[in-house]
Design a protein that fits this description.
The protein is an alpha/beta fold. It has a single domain, classed as P-loop containing nucleotide triphosphate hydrolases (Rossmann fold), CATH 3.40.50. The protein is about 30% helix and about 20% strand. It has a seven-stranded mixed sheet with strand order 1-3-4-2-5-6-7, with helices on both faces.
Length: about 200
């Protein structure tokens, strides 16, 4: 699949299941805890500075954003999870909306999930819950190890090795070290995404 990433825009902001697009375009979803860098990663992938809005208050927004890439693909930005200050009612809304997305995805449309994990911190308890769900769902996933530029080489290599050996990761799961600041991993992540779409 050839994509003109310059031809990208925010197509749908959905706060309700009824607002999800139904045009059978292939989708790749992006999942991760609040403040893990999803918006920055999507902006980096699409070579845009502010297409995906980086929130100054992590966890505040509970919507699913669908980014149209060249009329061929939706990059789906799921709301961040695990934000401690979020009210119980908001957490329930997050769970319901995210569950509606995954259970409502038409067969063959959702090709993969890019699961973001902060390489400085490693997988959190909330990440573990998401990984367990992904393992049970059968949906292929890719790990984007974000903020790799925040570690020196030795610490980065050590943390990546620990992530590679993490027991909840399915064997053979791609792990892409990623830095939005330095644009590290951008081409590798795009290659993984295209491979999953074409599989």
């Amino acid at each position: 699949m050839k994509l003109n990433i310059q031809n990208s825009n925010l197509a749908v902001t959905a706060g309700l299941k009824s607002q999800f697009p139904r045009d059978m375009r292939v989708q790749v979803a992006f999942s991760g805890r609040s403040n893990v860098g999803k918006s920055s990663l999507i902006n980096t992938l699409l070579a845009r500075k502010a297409l995906a809005r980086v929130s100054g208050q992590p966890g505040k927004t509970i919507t699913i954003n669908f980014y149209d890439v060249d009329k061929k693909l939706y990059l789906v930005d799921l709301p961040g999870y695990g934000f401690a200050k979020r009210a119980p009612a908001d957490k329930e809304k997050w769970s319901r909306l995210t569950n509606d997305f995954f259970t409502g995805a038409d067969k063959g449309v959702l090709k993969a999930v890019v699961q973001l994990i902060d390489i400085k911190v490693g997988p959190t308890a909330d990440d573990d819950m998401m990984l367990e769900w992904l393992n049970g769902s059968g949906i292929p996933y890719i790990i984007a190890a974000t903020k790799i530029d925040k570690l020196n080489r030795t610490d980065g290599e050590r943390n990546l090795k620990l992530l590679e050996e993490y027991p909840l990761l399915k064997e053979g799961t791609p792990i892409i070290p990623f830095s939005s600041t330095k644009k590290l991993g951008r081409d590798d992540l795009w290659k993984c995404i295209i491979d999953h779409i074409e599989a």
